[in-house]
């Protein structure tokens, strides 16, 4: 075999392989748009395609039949029969051009036009070579893609006027309506505009195609001209409240095109945006111009991102486009629970651990240099339990805890928990890492707190699923704490009695159902935070400004707390389940001053501890009346919120009474089951009721104030 023959055979083999190698979906759909839809299947945003054109995608069967027929008659009447190249059309065009002495018509098929669009980056510059390559790509498409899919890809990507790609997008941009609603005149007009590329010579082409389609009535061309005259410049559209979320998703290595079914609730996102705008009026004058909120919902083995609002107003001139939900800001006291939790894991802390909240000097890591930390209220409270130090958010105990654990160990933990921006050494951050000096994003913070609600395991965050139904996640599963440590922290963070001592009887973290929450305020009031959770939902809120300048006394408890209160009530309105403790955990009462087992006269609080943990020795200290005084906050022990009792038909009613058990620290209060007349009580209550099958609500009030509201059922 001669070299020339070998060369021809090799070239033929390469050419055959090139033609018959399948066209990938990425290539076939190259100029499809990227669309985000909500959990309710509401379109949140549609990004322009890779060419920067406005584009929409429809399956072939959703295009109106007249639109499809008009396109085929206008562009390629023999599309169903040829192999991608139409010899009849080529001969006819060649003869016509010879007669007229120039190129006045072409013979490009629908398949060739599609090849010209999706292989634009692979076509040579030379005019004749370009036509040859275009024909080869058309053959390739015909050989490897069905006619239906070819036509669908063409209808969705063919260049159209008004910077539109595809006929569906053109209908939206030109006629301001979905393509399924276009009139016969508008359907024909869209097909004409493919070849015209503009409105020049439009009328003659329109009437020619109208008659070719065999439409017998006279078209209402005046109405069509009127519709065309109303065209205005196209604008990107968003569902209110979704702007930050959709922009953030676009940055997360998603496909270049297709439909992303997000986990976001459009209705919840809109409602959260309205809450932010309403509550920001109270803090705007104090130097806060933006707030951000994220909401997670537990869904089996993952969390679902239900809401993300990154600022008070995306279109604000004061940095509204900045997504503060994913921006690193000083974390304040929000990381303190994880400092103490790490101490529990390492068996450094226990139920009776006490700290001294007093003036102290801590090393900075530099020779002969120390610093003297302060609490936010510039006061010292003396000796206190770990529980009170955490719930009251005292800084000096948290710094002492970080030093006992080791700043290096804390840094390793935070990196493992997803705070990858902490790239400096432990010496760089120092014990101030416990006070949030390393910073955190709102999404990172919400994932940390959601792990506490999931028995100490951080779950992947599902943001949606792609066109093929594959889930899209942020982060991975990571065990942070044991279930016992998570339960301890939850028990502390949901202690309303201690929260009231720290923030006052009426505070934004007070709810008539179980909520575990923690506030944070960064240095000079630059950032205010609240993160909290129920068994089902996690809500995290940030308040501040885009410049990072100090606000005027806007603490997390007040600024972010007011938004947190509204959002948490909104998401948990129909789900008041309480936190359940594992059988290996039990409540013990410890003295607030000594951390020892409480005796009569001790200022005491309940502490959750593993049964295997050594019980603290009895307190032998005598306390003054002032020390022993406790805020009288009744606590519902039974029924637990969301609890279901099942009546056994073979047992007597007397043996199946439902216990109402309330533990009180003193003071008068009242309780009522449903609409019954409230019963006044002082001290603990043990009230057993014979109830029939149904749904019930138990309410506890102190005066007119609703202290707790628990829904339960009997079946």
Summarize this entry quickly.
The chain is α+β, with helices and mostly antiparallel strands and 715 residues long. It has five domains: 19-40 and 47-229, Biosynthetic peptidoglycan transglycosylase-like (Penicillin binding protein transpeptidase fold, Orthogonal Bundle); 238-330 and 440-473 and 481-494 and 504-578, Beta-lactamase (3-Layer(aba) Sandwich), CATH 3.40.710; 332-438, DD-peptidase/beta-lactamase superfamily (Beta-lactamase), CATH 3.40.710; 581-631, no CATH class; 632-715, Sandwich (Immunoglobulin-like). Helices cover 34% and strands 20% of the residues.
What fraction, in percent, of the residue positions are helical?
A: 25-40%
Tell me the radius of gyration: 34 Å
Strand-pairing-aware structural class: alpha+beta
Give the overall pLDDT as a whole number: 86
Counted by DSSP, the helix tally is: 23
Main beta sheet strand tally, sense and closure: 10 strands, mixed
The tally of structural domains comes to: 5
Q: Beta-strand percentage?
A: 15-25%
CATH superfamily of the largest domain: DD-peptidase/beta-lactamase superfamily
Q: Choose one word for the global shape.
A: elongated
Instruction: Please write the CATH class name of the largest domain.
Output: Alpha Beta
CATH architecture annotation of the largest domain? 3-Layer(aba) Sandwich
* CATH fold type of the largest domain: Beta-lactamase
Low-confidence stretches: none
């Amino acid at each position: 075999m001669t070299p020339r023959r070998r060369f021809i055979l090799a070239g033929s083999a390469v050419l055959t392989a090139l033609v018959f190698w399948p066209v990938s979906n990425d290539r076939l759909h190259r100029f499809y748009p990227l669309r985000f839809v909500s959990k309710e299947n509401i379109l949140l945003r549609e990004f322009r395609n890779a060419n920067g054109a406005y584009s929409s995608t429809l399956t072939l069967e959703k295009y109106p039949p007249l639109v499809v027929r008009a396109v085929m008659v206008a562009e390629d009447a023999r599309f169903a029969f040829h192999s991608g190249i139409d010899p009849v059309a080529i001969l006819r065009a060649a003869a016509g051009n010879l007669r007229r002495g120039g190129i006045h018509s072409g013979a490009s098929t629908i398949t060739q036009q599609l090849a010209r669009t999706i292989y634009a980056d692979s076509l040579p510059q030379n005019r004749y070579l370009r036509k040859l390559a275009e024909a080869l790509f058309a053959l390739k498409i015909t050989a490897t893609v069905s006619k239906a899919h070819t036509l669908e890809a063409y209808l969705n990507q063919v260049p159209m006027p008004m910077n539109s790609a595809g006929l569906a997008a053109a209908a939206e941009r030109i006629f301001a309506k979905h393509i399924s609603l276009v009139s016969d005149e508008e359907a024909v007009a869209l097909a004409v505009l493919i070849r015209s590329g503009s409105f020049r010579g439009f009328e003659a082409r329109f009437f020619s195609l109208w008659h070719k389609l065999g439409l017998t009535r006279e078209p209402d061309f005046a109405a069509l001209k009127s519709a065309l005259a109303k065209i205005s410049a196209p604008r990107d559209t968003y569902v209110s409240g979704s702007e930050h979320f959709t922009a953030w998703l676009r940055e997360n290595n998603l496909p270049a095109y297709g439909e992303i079914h997000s986990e976001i609730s459009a209705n919840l996102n809109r409602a959260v945006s309205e809450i932010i705008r309403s509550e920001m009026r109270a803090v705007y004058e104090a130097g806060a111009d933006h707030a951000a909120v994220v909401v997670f919902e537990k869904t089996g083995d993952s969390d679902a991102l239900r809401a993300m609002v990154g600022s008070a107003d995306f279109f604000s001139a004061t940095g509204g486009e900045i997504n503060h939900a994913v921006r690193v800001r000083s974390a304040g006291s929000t990381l303190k629970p994880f400092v103490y939790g790490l101490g529990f894991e390492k068996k450094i802390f226990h139920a009776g651990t006490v700290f001294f909240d007093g003036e102290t000097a801590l090393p900075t890591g530099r020779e002969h240099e120390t610093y003297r930390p302060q609490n936010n209220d510039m006061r010292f409270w003396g000796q206190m339990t770990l529980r009170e130090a955490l719930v009251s958010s005292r800084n000096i105990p948290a710094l002492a805890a970080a030093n006992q654990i080791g700043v290096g160990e804390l840094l390793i933990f935070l990196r493992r928990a997803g705070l990858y921006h902490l790239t400096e050494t432990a010496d760089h951050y120092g014990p101030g890492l416990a006070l949030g000096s390393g910073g955190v994003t709102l999404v990172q913070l919400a994932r940390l707190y959601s792990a506490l609600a999931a028995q100490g395991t951080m779950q992947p965050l599902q943001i949606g699923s792609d066109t093929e139904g594959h889930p899209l996640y942020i982060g991975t599963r990571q065990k942070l704490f044991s279930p016992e440590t998570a339960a301890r922290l939850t028990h502390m963070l949901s202690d309303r009695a201690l929260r009231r001592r720290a923030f006052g009887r009426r505070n934004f973290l007070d709810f008539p159902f179980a909520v575990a929450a923690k506030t944070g305020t960064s240095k000079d009031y630059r950032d205010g935070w609240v993160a909290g959770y129920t068994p089902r939902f996690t809500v995290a809120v940030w308040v501040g400004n885009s410049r990072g300048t100090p606000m005027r006394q806007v603490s997390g408890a007040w600024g972010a707390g007011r938004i947190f209160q509204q959002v948490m009530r909104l998401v948990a309105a129909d789900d008041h389940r309480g936190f359940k403790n594992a059988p290996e955990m039990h409540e013990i009462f410890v003295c607030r001053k000594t951390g020892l087992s409480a005796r009569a006269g001790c200022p005491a609080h309940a502490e959750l501890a593993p049964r295997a943990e050594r019980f603290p020795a009895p307190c032998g200290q005598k306390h003054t009346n002032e020390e022993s005084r406790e805020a009288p906050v009744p606590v519902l022990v039974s029924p637990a919120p969301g609890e279901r009792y099942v009546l056994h038909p073979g047992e007597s009613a007397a043996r199946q009474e439902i216990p109402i058990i309330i533990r009180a620290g003193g003071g008068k209060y009242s309780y009522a089951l449903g609409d019954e007349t409230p019963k006044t009580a002082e001290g603990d209550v043990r009230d057993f009721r014979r109830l029939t099958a149904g749904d019930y609500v138990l309410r506890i009030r102190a005066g007119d104030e609703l202290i707790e509201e628990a829904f339960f059922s009997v079946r």
